[in-house]
Structure formats: structure tokens, C-alpha cells
């Protein structure tokens, strides 16, 4: 395992700047997720770490060594692309041992390592099978075993679960996380799915237009976003402009008992409820829809009838349509940069 230090990395494709001075420190053994919409530069950054692209400016240090101009095969990294291709005519054992064979490792040692890796992904009993005999999720696990068999210090994964259906993807996310913990290898994983990022990351790097918007734990990025882009990308948020007043803030909803601040108060729908927290004033339920694990409710505040607050209330806990209730907020985050 090794740390990765990205220093002022800039990347241009002709006149187009895909990465603007990205600085990022990834700890050894960390599970980092690069998250952002399509085109924000995730694959470009991953390719620069793996050595498939040389940055226009800046440096990439892996394990403290400058790797900026080192070829992919001479880096302690392995990249697993979304369209990981297993060799159809080879057994799983030979597929997993392929990288070792390329490095001149003998058959016995190769097979032993391949079996160990297949065991780790729960497929040891299928070592003699061919890829077409497996399900999509199983093939994915073989690709992971193959990538880890060469014992890279850093594993780079570009949307590896993108082709799987939702249920299998959830399962594979948990397995990926468990395997990463077990092997202790640094994982840099690319996705555009914020739920996947939160489920697996130690830290999430939110990217937008070639820039890092926020880098932090899933809780930090979700509950304490630094920018409105991060706030919106991580999930739905209610916005209320606030200005400091007395010991709290004033807002279109009236005075709110939160720490004095100037900017845009962001509240996740699950952090608006009927009991705990600071009062958001009285509001009328104008719409409610059942989503299984919660009710999604739109409230019209009495003090600001042109506003709607969205709350996710637990099953069976929502008032009737047209009922007036007092709403409460929890986990407030105020974005100073978004001052009204
Ligand atoms: P992501 O993986 O986040 O979807 P990419 O890193 O693939 O984004 O691309 C970032 C931006 O750089 C996009 O606008 C893309 O069109 C552009 N880009 C990527 N590769 C090339 C290339 N080889 N030549 C020109 N532009 C490119
Ligand atoms: Mg990409």
C-alpha cells in the first residue's frame, strides 16, 4: 500500500482544460472515491495517477516517489476499467494469474496466488471454470481478483460497477469495501453515483468542471457541504437565506435558533421533522407521497407562502393534507458563499 500525492496537477486537451490545478493527498490504505457528473475530469485524473496520461503541469507522487513521467507498467498501480475484459478461453485461475505470468512468475506460485485471490472473492470452488459460466457479479469479482493478484500498492477503479443492476451493485459495493479493508491497498474509485460514493468511501472527492469542490468524509460532504454544487450533487436540500440577528439568524421563516451566520441555510429533507431540533415555524402540508421507507412531504410555511419545504417523514408520521403543524430542523449547514 502507498500514499498518493497529487500536486498542482493541470491537464489540457488542446485548448480545453480538463483539470485545473488539482491538489489531493490520499493516505496509504485509504478508500478514496472521485465523484462528479460526467465530463468533470474523473477519468482524466485517474489516468494521470495510473500513468496513461502525463499532466500538462504538476506532479504525481506515489509512495513519496515522483511518478509523473513513469510508464504505467513501472508504477505500483493497477487500473481496473469498467469494460474489464476477462480472457474467454482461459480458466478463472489463469485469468487471475495472468498478470503474474506477464511478470515471469512460475506456474506453481502463480496458481497459489490465483487461488488465494479467488478465495478472497468467494470463487475458489470455480477456479477451473471459464468466464462465460459465471454471472455478471461473479465476473466482476474475478476482474477484481486479477487486479489484486499482482499486489499493487494502489488500485485504480473507473466506474467498475457501472454495468451492474442496482441490487447487485449494492452487494458488490459492500464486498468491494470489505475486500479493500482486508487487503489494505489504497483504492481510488471513480463513480458518478453519490449513494455508491457514500457507501464505500473513507473520503469523497467531489469534482466539478475539472476542479475539486470538496474533499471529506461522506458525513462531512453530505452534512457540511462547502459549495452549493456539493450540496446539490450529494442529495436534495432545502434552502433558506439567513442573516445574523441577535443570538441567531433571521430568515423568511422568521427568527431561527441556530448559530449566527450569513448565507444560505441548507437542510436535508430527512433533517426536517415534527419534533426535534430548532423551530422552523408553522407550515401547512400541501402534498405527500409514499416512498416506502419514508413519506415525502411538501410544506408551505405560514411566514413565507411562496416557499416550499420538503421533509422526509417516517412511515405513518405525517399529518393530513391541509393540516398545520410546527416544523423543526436538525443538522443545519450555512453556506457563506451563497449569501442572499
Ligand atoms: P469523466 O470521467 O468525469 O466523465 P473525463 O475525465 O473523461 O470525465 O473528461 C473530462 C473532460 O475532458 C470532458 O469534457 C471530456 O470531453 C474531455 N476529454 C477527455 N478526454 C479527452 C481527449 N482525449 N481529448 C479531448 N478532450 C477530452
Ligand atoms: Mg469517466
Task: Please report the total strand number as a whole number.
Answer: 19
Radius of gyration: 24 Å
Q: Helix and strand string, N-terminal first?
A: EEEHEEEHHHEHEHEEHHEEEEEEEEE
Shape: elongated
Count of discrete structural domains: 2
Helix amount? 25-40%
Number of alpha- plus pi-helical segments? 8
Per CATH, what is the topology of the largest domain? Rossmann fold
Gap from first CA to last CA: 46 Å
- Strand proportion: 25-35%
| CATH class membership of the largest domain | Alpha Beta
Structural classification: alpha+beta
For the biggest sheet, the summary is: 6 strands, mixed
Question: So what's the oligomer here?
Answer: single chain
- Give the overall average pLDDT: 95
Strand adjacency order, main sheet: 6-7-8-3-9-10
Provide an overview of this structure.
The chain is of the alpha+beta class and 340 residues long. The protein folds into 2 domains: 229 residues, 3-Layer(aba) Sandwich (Rossmann fold); 102 residues, Beta Barrel (OB fold (Dihydrolipoamide Acetyltransferase, E2P)). 25% of the residues lie in helices and 34% in strands. It is built from 8 helices and 19 strands. The strands form 4 sheets. Strands 6-7-8-3-9-10 form a 6-stranded mixed beta sheet, with helices on both faces. Strands 14-18-15-16-17 form a 5-stranded antiparallel beta sheet, with no helix packed on it. Strand 15 and strand 16 form a beta hairpin. Helix 2 crosses helix 3, helix 2 runs parallel beside helix 4 and helix 3 packs across helix 4. The chain is elongated, with a radius of gyration of 24 Å. The chain starts with a strand and ends in a 5-residue tail after the last strand. The relative contact order is 0.12. The mean pLDDT is 95. Bound molecules: adenosine-5'-diphosphate (ADP) and magnesium ion (MG). Magnesium ion binds next to helix 1. This is Probable ATP-binding component of ABC transporter. Keywords: ATP-binding, Nucleotide-binding, Transport. One of its GO terms (molecular function) is ATP binding. One of its GO terms (cellular component) is plasma membrane.
Amino acid at each position: 500500500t502507498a500514499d498518493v500525492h497529487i500536486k498542482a496537477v493541470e491537464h489540457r486537451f488542446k485548448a480545453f482544460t480538463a483539470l485545473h490545478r488539482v491538489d489531493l493527498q490520499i493516505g496509504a490504505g485509504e478508500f478514496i472515491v472521485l465523484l462528479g457528473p460526467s465530463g468533470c475530469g474523473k477519468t482524466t485524473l485517474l489516468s494521470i495517477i495510473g500513468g496513461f496520461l502525463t499532466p500538462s503541469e504538476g506532479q504525481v507522487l506515489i509512495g513519496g516517489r515522483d511518478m509523473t513521467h513513469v510508464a504505467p507498467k513501472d508504477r505500483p498501480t493497477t487500473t481496473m476499467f469498467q469494460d474489464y475484459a476477462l480472457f474467454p478461453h482461459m480458466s478463472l485461475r489463469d485469468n487471475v494469474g495472468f498478470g503474474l505470468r506477464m511478470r515471469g512468475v512460475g506456474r506453481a506460485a502463480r496458481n497459489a496466488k490465483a487461488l488465494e485471490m479467488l478465495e478472497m472473492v468467494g470463487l475458489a470452488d470455480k477456479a477451473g471454470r471459464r468466464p462465460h459460466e459465471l454471472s455478471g457479479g461473479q465476473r466482476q469479482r474475478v476482474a477484481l481478483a486479477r487486479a489484486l493478484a499482482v499486489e499493487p500498492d494502489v488500485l485504480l477503479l473507473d466506474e467498475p460497477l457501472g454495468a451492474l443492476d442496482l441490487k447487485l451493485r449494492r452487494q458488490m459495493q459492500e464486498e468491494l469495501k470489505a475486500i479493500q479493508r482486508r487487503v489494505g491497498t489504497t483504492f481510488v474509485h471513480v463513480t458518478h453515483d453519490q449513494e455508491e460514493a457514500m457507501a464505500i468511501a473513507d473520503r469523497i472527492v467531489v469534482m466539478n468542471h475539472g476542479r475539486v469542490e470538496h474533499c471529506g468524509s461522506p458525513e462531512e460532504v453530505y452534512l457540511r457541504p462547502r459549495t452549493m454544487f456539493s450540496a446539490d450533487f450529494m442529495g436534495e436540500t432545502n434552502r433558506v437565506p439567513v442573516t445574523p440577528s441577535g443570538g441567531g439568524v433571521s430568515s423568511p421563516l422568521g427568527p431561527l435558533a441556530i448559530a449566527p451566520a450569513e448565507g444560505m441555510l441548507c437542510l436535508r429533507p430527512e433533517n426536517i421533522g415534527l419534533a426535534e431540533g430548532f423551530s422552523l415555524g408553522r407550515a401547512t402540508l400541501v402534498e405527500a407521497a409514499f416512498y416506502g421507507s419514508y413519506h415525502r412531504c411538501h410544506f408551505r410555511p405560514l411566514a413565507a407562502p411562496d416557499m416550499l419545504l420538503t421533509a422526509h417523514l417516517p412511515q405513518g408520521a405525517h399529518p393530513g393534507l391541509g393540516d398545520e403543524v410546527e416544523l423543526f430542523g436538525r443538522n443545519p449547514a450555512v453556506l457563506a458563499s451563497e449569501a442572499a
